[in-house]
Amino acid sequence: MEKQGRIIKLMGSIYTVVDDERKKYKIKPLGILRYKNIQPKVGDLVVFNDDSIIEVKPRMNDLYRPMIANVDQVLLVNSAKKPDFSFLLLDKFLTLIEANDIKPVIIITKVDLLENDEMKALKAKLNYYEKFYRVIYFSAISEIGLDEVVEVTKNKVNVLAGQTGAGKSTLLNTIEPTLNIKTDEISKALGRGKHTTRHVELIEFKEGYIADTPGFSKLEFVDYQADQIRFYFPDFFKLSSECKFYECTHMHEPGCAIISAYQKNEILPERYEDYRFIYEEIKVQKPKYRRDEK
Ligand SMILES: Nc1nc2c(ncn2[C@@H]2O[C@H](COP(=O)(O)OP(=O)(O)OP(=O)(O)O)[C@@H](O)[C@H]2O)c(=O)[nH]1
Ligand SMILES: [Mg+2]
Ligand SMILES: [Zn+2]
């Protein structure tokens, strides 16, 4: 009998599919799918029977790194300290998430490591982002923000993303202690490399799912054009109808509403400077590094 379900795990060539009653099946795709060049991935909604995946439903979105499809939101984890908070990293991640048409939720972790005045200063700046994104302050130690994280994640397919060491796995362990996911300290004890989290899996969580991912040490924009980046800054996009030129890149054009807002301090300076940085970085990128031309 054919059923509908979601792929939550891929190990070797065996897929774990969960049906509506949360029953699990370990199966392989039908050969015909490979013939049609359809490769099922974690997150896919599929039609299947007891032996095989028969059909992969069209994807709502499709991430390349991590390899995961149909994501409702990305929980973008940034540490307040250790490693130090970086607006550039935040804006780079946000750009990539927006480019994939996924909703980001900003989580600032390790707030227990900040002094009161440091916290105030960071909040004053991040306040700018709250106009268009949800921002949650979190600490695994004091458990600040725990209820908020649980509330924002339930009934959704969530993916954790963020710099290595930001505290993604720790956050997951804090909201669901039974998961007992490996974090930094254990990998150090084993004398392994930087990344503690390796494979991708959707973990059943609060009527939804959550995937931990290995942190990135370097973010690359291999598949993007500099001129597209403006569409991934929702705050700029809204203002851009007031730019003099329809195709304004907000880099140098006369009558640019974004440059003008930046000069008037209506846009967080870091935000516009990061935009310029990302734009320039993509501009100087050598075409041979583009994935589609390899
Ligand atoms: N003080 C403090 N330390 C934290 C907090 N969250 C995580 N840490 C520490 O930060 C280090 C890195 O945490 P991980 O959870 O492994 O980071 P990760 O983002 O999963 O890292 P990767 O898997 O390498 O991408 C560990 O030593 C944690 O104990 C926090 O809220 N407060
Ligand atoms: Mg981790
Ligand atoms: Zn402009």
Question: Any chance you could write out the topology, listing elements then pairs?
Answer:
Blueprint: E1 3-11, E2 14-19, E3 24-29, H1 31-35, E4 45-48, E5 52-56, E6 62-63, E7 68-69, E8 73-79, H2 87-99, E9 103-109, H3 116-126, E10 134-137, H4 146-153, E11 157-161, H5 168-175, H6 184-189, E12 203-205, E13 208-211, H7 234-239, H8 257-263, H9 269-283
Parallel strand pairs: 3-5, 8-9, 8-11, 9-10, 11-13
Antiparallel strand pairs: 1-2, 1-4, 2-3, 4-5, 6-7, 12-13
Helix pairs in contact: 2-9
Magnesium ion binds at residues 168-169, 196-197, 212.
Task: Describe the protein's architecture and organization.
- The protein has 294 residues and is of the alpha/beta class.
- It has 3 domains: 3-58, Beta Barrel (OB fold (Dihydrolipoamide Acetyltransferase, E2P)); 68-211, Rossmann fold; 226-293, Orthogonal Bundle (Ribonucleotide Reductase Protein R1, domain 1).
- It contains 9 helices and 13 strands.
- It has helices at 31-35, 87-99, 116-126, 146-153, 168-175, 184-189, 234-239, 257-263, 269-283, and strands at residues 3-11, 14-19, 24-29, 45-48, 52-56, 62-63, 68-69, 73-79, 103-109, 134-137, 157-161, 203-205, 208-211.
- The model is unreliable at 186-196 (pLDDT under 50).
- The chain binds guanosine-5'-triphosphate, magnesium ion and zinc ion.
- Residues 168-169, 196-197, 212 line the site of magnesium ion (MG).
